[in-house]
Design a protein that fits this description.
Helices cover 17% and strands 40% of the residues. By secondary structure, the protein is of the alpha+beta class.
Length: 279
């Protein structure tokens, strides 16, 4: 038996969300600062740049996390690699290489509590089952944790053009099953725009999509039917999501400042490689 004190009930801790085996907390202030860093810490807190953590209740479900994400755990908890053999390891290594995720994601089981490393990114708790039987496809680097009922798979683009021209890569991680996934996002969930398609299409100028239904067809096409029209409009190529499903997208490209994000040309130039809080 264990007891945890001065953690979630701390005056500086706010419970942001809870779903399934996961809870998301936020540290409203960072008091472990020096005189030199206190000004930055103060204004960071005022601008909602705060540390956030995921707490996993393993008594509700075993969880799989991104390698290196564990900060501390308490109780009767066992860690496994989830690798069943050489073939399984090679398969996961290939998945990790093409999706920029870690090859082997540790699994934690038992009757205890697992706390993940803090992050300044925003945490989204997604009910994977609500995305349908095909599941949801997420942007590279967003996966943080999921419960044991959620399975991951690598999905390839429909054609080479969508990978090379769309700036999205050849492969993405797809999650399927009835369970919860914890995702790291560069923008808060309440700022994400949701588009529901019913045998229709969505065209986005830039890689603003955060996650989308895995059954949607993703391609890169000209913004108009002719090269001259695309050149005149100034839009060029756009990412197209076609079919029936959902898309969550950022309102602006996640760059290092609001000014850059709202400056159209700068945002487009930075969108492919930018990360709000760095690599």
């Amino acid at each position: 038996m264990f007891t945890i004190s001065n953690f979630t009930e701390n005056d500086d801790v706010q419970m942001l969300d809870a779903l399934g085996a996961f809870q998301v907390i936020e540290w409203k202030r960072d008091l472990s600062v020096t005189p030199e860093s206190s000004v930055v810490a103060y204004f960071s807190s005022e601008m909602n740049v705060r540390r956030r953590q995921v707490i996993c209740d393993l008594s509700q479900a075993p969880v799989t996390i991104q390698a290196g994400a564990m900060q501390w755990m308490v109780g009767d908890v066992e860690q496994t690699t989830g690798v069943t053999g050489v073939g399984d390891f090679l398969g996961k290594a290939i998945k990790g290489a093409v999706t920029k995720e870690t090859a082997v994601k540790p699994e934690y089981v038992g009757e205890g509590c697992l706390v993940l490393e803090p992050t300044y990114k925003y945490i989204i708790l997604a009910d994977v089952g609500k995305w349908g039987s095909a599941g949801m496809t997420i942007e590279d680097g967003m996966f943080l944790a999921c419960d044991a009922n959620v399975k991951s798979n690598v999905v390839a683009r429909k054609n080479l053009s969508s990978a090379v021209l769309g700036g999205e890569g050849l492969f993405n991680l797809s999650l399927q099953g009835n369970g919860v996934a914890a995702l790291e996002s560069n923008v808060p969930e309440d700022e994400l725009i949701e588009v529901i398609l019913e045998n229709d299409e969505l065209k986005i100028d830039g890689n603003l999509a955060v996650c989308w239904s895995s059954n949607l067809e993703f391609t890169v096409e000209r913004s108009t039917k002719t090269l001259v029209g695309s050149a005149v409009s100034g839009e060029g190529l756009v990412n197209v999501y076609r079919g029936t499903g959902r898309v969550l997208m950022c309102p602006v490209a996640p760059t290092t400042s609001l000014f850059e994000s709202t400056n159209t040309m700068t945002a487009k130039a930075a969108a492919k490689s930018s990360n709000t809080f760095g690599k």
